[in-house]
Amino acid sequence: MNLVNATRFPAAYTLGLQPDARELLVVVAKGTFSIPKAGEEAAPAAVQAPLVAADVFTGEPGFSAAQYESDFAPRKPKCDVLLNGSAYAPGGRPAPRVTVSLQVASMTKAFDVVGNRGWAKSFLALAASRPVPFVKMGISYNNAFGGVDKSREPHRFYALNHAGVGYHDNLAAEAITGKLLPNTEERGREVTDPRGKYRPMALGPIGRAWQPRVGFAGTYDKNWLDNVSPFLPADFKDEYYQAAPADQQIPFPKGGEEVALVNLTPEGRVSFRLPKLDMPIEFFMKEGPAQAKEGVIDTILIEPDLGRFSISWRAHLPLKRSIFEVSQVVVGRMPRGWYRAKELGKVYRRSLAEAILFPIPEAVPEEQES
Description:
Blueprint: E1 2-5, E2 11-17, E3 23-34, E4 43-44, E5 56-57, E6 66-68, E7 79-83, E8 85-88, E9 97-104, E10 107-114, E11 119-121, E12 126-128, E13 136-139, E14 145-146, E15 148-149, E16 156-157, E17 165-166, H1 173-176, E18 184-185, H2 222-228, E19 249-250, E20 258-262, E21 269-273, E22 280-285, E23 291-294, E24 296-303, E25 308-318, E26 326-331, H3 336-344, H4 352-357
């Protein structure tokens, strides 16, 4: 099987698996766009970000927040809205606390970003030091509430965010004094208790092993080991593939939806609209008619510090037996003549010059074949 990419964007395919062991042929295309100036439309960036084959972490894998997740999830029930970036104090004047917000279509998420501070414990009370004013502060699950308390055995971890800071089960002065507090907080709910149940506030991908995401991965018990492995358990849910938390998931966009960033750029507020682009994906079968599908937008990644955002389109085809049922996949639209040539079993050339440069090789008579 080969893939013909008729778009200006990177595209590729992979195989996915359903809990019933049926394979899926998954096709993904990703377009990178420059964040436009006010009143302008988003245009494809000069440099297109490549498809991500494996998760990329901000530090040591498994012990730090993910920066990019693999682009090859088999399918997502909704669209993930993600942002990698920083908070900026209004007007470039240092501030101890700044409220940031992200809006994409019907989704709006806002929280506070706080300057650096640490826990301090005296004989009487536990308190946080005053935040240090900042002009720019990175936003990540690395500096959101959570983390692992390694001060004693067994280690304790915060189930919602293994990579964060501020969580401590051991409140002994020598174990907690000077340890960092998170730089992000829910609006109206300051972090005052190292054992508190706080929502980690960030905008990037959540960990695959964190709650509640890991709960969608299914049950891996003795029955799975004995009777199901290496296939997915029956209670596996596609929601596991959602990299964004639930409050950053939206119905599949059609294009044209508004995006608004507040205090996520030095300008203070930036808004633009998602581009309106169709992404047809056609599966040509070895037997039977071609199957035409429309790629859905299921991932939006905004990177204001890099002046860009990306959109990922995805389509999948359930296979009866194997990938060899499919002879070719076309992403985007080829010229009309290409389809006509394919129908007639001929080779398509875009121009006479191309036909001269790339002539069709003559068939070798059977008696001359070796």
